[in-house]
Each structure stands twice: as C-alpha cells, then as structure tokens.
Amino acid sequence: MPVQIAMPKLGLTMTEGLITEWKFKEGDSVKKGDVLFTLETEKVTYEVESPADGVLAKILICEGETVPVGAVVGYITQTGEKLPLPLAPETIAVGKERPTPGELSTETEFSAQTSPISEIEVSAPTDLRIRATPLAKKTARAYGIDLGGVKGSGSHGRIMLCDVEAWLQRQATVPTGIAQPDAAGGDRLVPFSSMRRAIARKMLASKLETAQTYMSLNADASKILECREALLSVIEAKHHVRITVTDIIMKITGAAIKEHPVINTRWTAEGVLFLKDVHMGMAMALEEGLIVPVIRNINDKSFSQISLERTRLIEKGKANKFMPDDISGSTFTVSAMGMFGIEQFTSNINVPECAILAVGTIIKKQVVVHDQAVIRPIMNVTLSYDHRVIDGAEAGKFLRTLKSYFQNPIQIFA
Questions:
Q1: I want to staple 152 with a disulfide (CB 3.0 to 4.6 A). Which of 60, 123, 159, 216 is the partner?
Q2: 243 burial via Cβ count (<10 Å: 0-12, 13-18, 19+)
C-alpha cells in the first residue's frame, strides 16, 4: 500500500516545518535513505530521508509551504500502485485549499467511466488555476504583481518566491526603499531566511519586552589561564579535545549562578519563575547568523564533559546538523568575543532568559596589586539583565561572586 511521507518531529519544541526544497520530482524512483526534501524550522535545516523504496507518486506540500509536525507531505508507491481517495485528511487541512461547494480541483477530478470512486491513477495534475506559495503571493501583493504573468518553477508549475524575484529583476521594478540591482552587479536584494527572521524577532523582543540594564567589571584571568594550562594535556590525552578558556568560564559562571538563583529565572504573567537547573547557552556564529546551542545541567558536568559537549555542538553546527533540542531550553547564555580581539561589548538578552554575560578578550594590562604596578591578563565581562526581575544590587552580588571565582577557580569545588 502507499507509504505516507510525514513532516517529522525533530525535537520536543518543534511544532511545524517549512519545506525548502524537494530533491525529486513526482514519478522519480527513490530508495530508502535517499534525501527526499529539506525542511527548515526557525534555526535548523534538516534533510528528510525516504522511508521506503518506490516511486515518489505524489507531492502534496510544495516548496515554500509550512505545515504542522505529522502532516502528510507526499506519498511513495510501488510501480502501478494507486493512491486512495480522498488523500490523508490532515494534508487537505494543512496543505491544500479546500474547494468551494460545486467546485472541484482538477488535481482530484476523475471520470466515473475510467476511475473507481475510491482511487485515482498517479499522474501529473493539470491545474489551470494560478498556484503559488503563500510567501510568493504575499510578495506579489506588496509589489503589485499580477501572478498571471509569472512562470512558476515549483512542483506542477507552482509559483515560488524566487520566481517573483526573478520577474522583478526582469521588469526592473523594485519597490521604493529597496536597492535596485545594477548592471554591474553592485547592489543586490537577499531574501530573509527563516533563521534571519527568527534572529530578528528575538532581538527585537529582547529590546522591547525586557527592562534591559547593564553592569560591567574587569577580572584578573591569571588563574583561569593556569587552570587551562594544567588541564589541557590531560583532557586532550584522555578525550582528544582541547579545553578552552570559554569552557572554564561557562563552568565557573554556572557555579556562580547556583549561588545567586535570581539570575536563573523567567518573567511570567503569574510571577517570577526560579529554575532549578542551569542549562548554559553558548552564543555561536554561523554563516547564516547567530545561534545558541545548549550545554544542559552544566553544574553536573566536569571540565572534560563540557569540552566534549561544546566540541560536539560546534561540529554539528558546522555540518548544519543541529536538532531543535540542541538549540532550545537554555536558562542563561555566555557570549564570548575574545577570538575577535573585542575588549568589551554588551549582548542582548536571549529571551526568555533574564540575563546574559558578554566576555571580552584577555589582554595584558598594567594594574596595581599590593601597591605595586604589575602586568596581569585582564578580562572584561558585562552582564545584561532584566531589571524587572533582577535588581541592581543582586546583579552586583552575582558579578562580585563571579569575579572571585574567576580569580580563584578552585573555590567552585569547595
């Protein structure tokens, strides 16, 4: 019998997915394990493999469309096998417009003389209506474009966003306020990706929905560097990963948060939610934008476990293999910019968290110790916090503890 292709659930937080590309056309032969299509959630791109050998008989959800988890997006059949009518109800509800009374889509039309009422032969549809993705329709309305004059490149001639953009370039009609591409290829318009839209929403929410306030201090990083030097060869020999300063900073920060639970909170409509476990987010830059993978229960992990987890997450990010659960559920975030030589900066709170720590590079500076001018490796950290939840005094106490731990890391094991 026909095999349904469903929108997979990639993690506990995933509710829907956007199909970005079908790798096969209707009628193509596929094998189990072949990549059928790619999907996007807010910050994850994922390749969905074929669940069986056969023929990709029907594509129900076209490129550029978003559907809920579990929705049927297509069918695989064996040669000559027929599809049932009606197709899966959930696909009609989430993927297709229902016909109005008295109207029947040509995709489901059949002749009583040639086809039984319960099934149709798998064949290419000949829909005469204008078919376009929601994003293509929205863009066309914004640009005042008649889609009747746009040729679609999607499945069954469906008009995609790229088709609308190509039409705009051919007609040289770009809306006011958007740079028009010139003949030399200078300016160009890059459509927003799902990831960029998600980043924009979160950054705007961070500014609009929190009473964001900042506090900064310098700390002597001598002991952190000594700690790394002592652990480096041991962890590398045992686990084949190199511990970083960031690993140590995240571990120390988790310990300081445990001493100041108000830092690990959420603002809710009912009150302030104090979270028991510290799940450490680490801000990470990808080509497509910023993402925050999570090291869960960081206070329960050793330095070597943190190094292994960070390495695993970075490798997944580089390979574009993040799952939604890898990048959700953080309770506090550390953003380190030392690799760029940035001495001091502030970070936007990663909502719904209530605070984030920005860590600058370590620079040798002249400081006074016991009334003597000496050279020390100094590191600046800046706490951004939601003043609705965290008072200035509490933020100051947290930073004081953090500085003490930075300058004497052995304290976190006391």
A1: 159
A2: buried
Strand 332-336 and strand 35-40: pairing? unpaired
Residue 39: CA count within 13 A, CB half-sphere:
25
Alpha helices, H only, 36-128? 89-95
- The whole-number pLDDT of residue 220 equals 97
CB burial class (10 A; 0-12, 13-18, 19+) of residue 133? buried
Helix (H) or strand (E) holding 265: strand 265-267
- Distance of alpha carbon 168 from alpha carbon 175, whole angstroms: 9
CATH code linked to domain 3-120: 2.40.50.100
The CA distance from 62 to 82, in Å, is 21
Q: DSSP secondary-structure letter at 26?
A: T
Q: State percent of the chain over pLDDT 90.
A: 56
Residue 21 — φ and ψ, nearest 5°? -160, 130
Give the amino acid at 276.
K
- Whether the CB-CB separation of 6 and 73 falls below 8 Å is answered with yes
Joined together, the tokens standing for residue 56 give 């990709």
pLDDT band at 129 (very low <50, low <70, confident <90, very high): low
Q: Is the pLDDT of residue 4 over 70?
A: yes
Beta-bridge mates of residue 21: 38
CATH class (in words) of the domain with range 196-413: alpha beta
Q: What is the DSSP letter of 81?
A: -
- Per-residue pLDDT averaged across 349-365, rounded? 97
Question: Could you give the residue numbers annotated as active site?
Answer: 387
* pLDDT of 160 higher than 90: no
**Domain 134-191 in CATH: superfamily?**
E3-binding domain (4.10.320.10)
β-pair partners for 362 = 379
Cβ 204 vs Cβ 269: under 8 Å: no
Q: Does residue 70 sit in helix, strand or coil? A: coil
Torsional class of 144: left (φ above 0), alpha (ψ -120 to 50), beta (otherwise)? left
Contact between 107 and 125 under an 8 Å Cβ cutoff? The reply is: yes
| C-alpha span between 81 and 388 (Å, rounded) | 62
Q: Tell me if residue 157 falls in helix, strand or coil.
A: helix
Of 66, 31, 37, 72, which Cα lies nearest the Cα of 52?
31
The identity of residue 411, as a single letter, is Q
